[in-house]
Amino acid sequence: RVFRLFKLSKYSQGMWLLSATMVRSWRALGMLGFFMLISVVLFSSVMYFVERGDYFYCTHAAVDLGLCSADEVGVRTEGQGLEHCTAWAKEKYGYELRCCWGEGWYVAQDANGDECVDKSQFESIVATAWWCVVTMTTVGYGDVLVHTTLGKVVATATMLSGILILALPITVIGSNFNLEYERTVQEEKLRREME
């Protein structure tokens, strides 16, 4: 039923104008997509490594302290055991906080005041890609936040490059829209004169 709307669009001069503009601008749209893809991969990777925090995994000592369950104990060598989280947070944050969320990436802060270290919002490069797309398109939902100074520098570079990447092809699309609009007006004027 939704596709019936597309059938109705053939009677709309505005929809014809828009579709003709998009067809005429396919190179600019392809360039926009390519540059966005490359930029998202680049900035997501950089931001992930800057903002991911420290990794804490479940160990037998952490199970004894009640920080995780025995079935979560793995053979992980990267990071530290969850039993070291409180000392790490005290060193970074200034007072004792616990790692309440089990194994994962943690950042040394307590944004919601629950006396637990916050889990990192940048858990993978793919998850960080969401932040990157939202930032580059200047939507800025605010659901994922940058905390470190170096992260803020990367975020600034991401915002500025997003504006530049979007601005260049959009001017071409705008120019093509203007050309198609003028052509449509000329055709309409010619049709009226022939009647």
List the helices and strands and how they pair.
Blueprint (H helix, E strand, L loop, with lengths): L2 H6 L4 H12 L1 H26 L2 E4 L2 H5 L15 E2 L3 H9 L10 E4 L10 E2 L5 H12 L12 H46 L1
Parallel strand pairs: 1-2
Antiparallel strand pairs: 1-3, 3-4
Task: Walk me through this protein's architecture.
This protein is of the alpha+beta class. It has helices at residues 3-8, 13-24, 26-51, 60-64, 85-93, 125-136, 149-194; strands spanning 54-57, 80-81, 104-107, 118-119. Helices cover 59% and strands 6% of the residues. The protein has a four-stranded mixed β-sheet, with no helix packed on it. Helix 4 links the parallel strand 1 and strand 2 (80-81). The mean pLDDT is 86.
Q: Give the termini distance in whole angstroms.
A: 37 Å
* Number of E strands: 4
Strand fraction equals 5-15%
Taken in chain order, the helices and strands follow as HHHEHEHEEHH
Query: Low-confidence segments, ≥5 residues, pLDDT <50?
Result: none
What is the makeup of the main sheet? 4 strands, mixed
- Using the alpha-carbon principal axes, give the shape: elongated
The number of distinct helices, counting runs of at least 4 residues, comes to 7
SS class: alpha+beta
Taking all Cα atoms into account, the compactness measure Rg is: 26 Å
Q: Which bin fits the share of residues in helices?
A: 55-70%
Mean pLDDT value? 86
